[in-house]
Known about the structure:
Blueprint: H1 7-42, E1 56-62, H2 81-95, E2 100-106, E3 111-117, H3 120-129, H4 132-137, H5 144-153, E4 161-167, H6 174-179, E5 187-194, E6 200-201, E7 203-206, E8 212-214, E9 216-217, E10 220-221, E11 223-224, H7 228-237, E12 241-245, H8 251-257, H9 277-293
Parallel strand pairs: 1-2, 1-4, 4-5, 5-12
Antiparallel strand pairs: 2-3, 6-11, 7-8, 9-10
Helix pairs in contact: 1-9, 2-8
Amino acid sequence: MDMRKSPFEHIRRSTLIRNERKTLISRISFLFGFFCVIGALLAPSDIPETNHMDRVIVPIIDNSLSMAVPDVGYKDGAINRFQAAKEVIKEMIQTYPEYSYGLFAFNSNPRIVAPITNAHETILNLLNGLGNANYQWGSNMTNMAQMIETLYASGWNNTPITAIVLTDGWEEWDIEKLSSLPRYPSIRWHIIGIGSKEWWQIPTGTDLFGNPSVKMFSGKPVISRRYDTNIDTFATTLRATQSTLEHTDEISDIIREIPLSDGEQKKTFAFTPPWTRSYWIFFAFIFLSIGIFFPRYDKAE
Length: 301
């Protein structure tokens, strides 16, 4: 007697095999989904943000009273030292738009004007608003050591930055304290001495009658010039590079000669890396959906 199986038996057997495979896929998917849920619970919640601050310039502008002296380009179309310092910062941002910037101002009371950001328009607006009142009517002290202490206290010493000091010099009593401050390899210092070496009276605005007035001490006008000795001391103490600015047409050359920090080489991502929580949740959803909704068949007894 012919014991060959009928065609229906072959169809039934093939169907059972397919059903067993579907069931296996469902169970494996459910298992993967379970592990993805565990991964989501253990993974960090946020991706490392693409860091736009790994190349940073921090201009540090002296806004003490002596910076009001109009001796930059004094032979032809003079502007005061403070205005010249502003022009340097503006052109620097135009020359190096790929850098992020902070902004720091100092006299007797150093302060952060702007935190480190790549929003250049914000920096320029704050720079433009850094005011006449501060440098014309503020303290005449140029407290360099306290400025550096404040910079360190801000935590910026933990960031690879190029710190560019724009000043006409400072008081002699500050030098000893300056030499005692720590040095951080993450900060590359550059100092730009602004103004001429000739003595100038310090303007303080106008008197009650609208006439120009100057700073007086013991009945005599106070005079100021660029203090190269102090600027040299700063450069030696903090291993800084240095340059001087006497004429506005020198600004572009000075900016291009400043050795800038290349910043910190940080790995950035154009997409969410797979070990972060969002990826684990995504795959958990996919695998659990397959495991729950994919057809499963119990093996017939």
